Amino acid sequence: AQKVTQAQTEISVVEKEDVTLDCVYETRDTTYYLFWYKQPPSGELVFLIRRNSFDEQNEISGRYSWNFQKSTSSFNFTITASQVVDSAVYFCALSESGGSSNTGKLIFGQGTTLQVKP
Amino acid sequence: NAGVTQTPKFQVLKTGQSMTLQCAQDMNHEYMSWYRQDPGMGLRLIHYSVGAGITDQGEVPNGYNVSRSTTEDFPLRLLSAAPSQTSVYFCASSYSFGVSYEQYFGPGTRLTVT
Q: CA geometry: angle at B71 spanning B69 and B75, to 5°?
């Protein structure tokens, strides 16, 4: 069965610290996609990144970087030099394949609440 | 483009009342879905649609109905609200039915059932 685990429920850091949010997933599919979404205090869900199962290259976007390792079924997210505006709930999600039974659904982790203090 | 819109933003219902949460998108997306978000549980899929006239159940469909008469609209109906349906509801859409497409989420509807 597909599953996404974000073991860190809450993380608190001081501004300018680096922080890594962990995401571990389970799937039997060979083709799948992994996502990260940000949910700021205003409540909307903001798409951050999509990564397919065949692309293990790390990605960097400004202060954000993602480390995808199939060997450990992990897709971790690092914020460098954190800022107060990074305070949010971050969700990791898995999109299953499943061929004809594909529901297209996103399987979400429980979320990690990040608080960045000034 | 307005993207994905949801109405209302907030709603309080009494147990047993019915209501419809509205969702619309103006991106001509084929795929639309409804999720509910509960504390500590992430988001869970309620119902989804791969195109006008086609709907199917997700992970937690009980107590909810959907229909898709047009590409743009995907309303979620609560027939007889229960306190267990107190949650934040998100509608999402994506270009097509497949694993590679980003899903765009609406702003959410916060529902309280007393």
A: 55
Burial, A29: exposed, middle or buried (Cβ in 10 Å; 0-12, 13-18, 19+)? middle
CA angle A49, A55, A61 (to 5 degrees): 35
> What is the model's pLDDT at position B21?
98
B residues 21..40 contacting A (CB < 8 A): 31, 33, 35, 40
> A43 and chain B: CB distance < 8 Å anywhere?
yes
Min Cα distance B27 → chain A (Å) is: 16
Q: Taking CB atoms and an 8 Å cutoff, what residues of chain A touch B48?
A: 103-105
Task: Note the pLDDT tens digit of each residue in A36-57.
Answer: 999 999 999 999 998 888 888 8
Closest Cα in chain B, distance from residue A18 (Å): 24
Lowest mean pLDDT among A1-15, B74-88, B95-109: B95-109
**Residue A85 neighbours by CB under 8 Å, 6+ apart:** A116
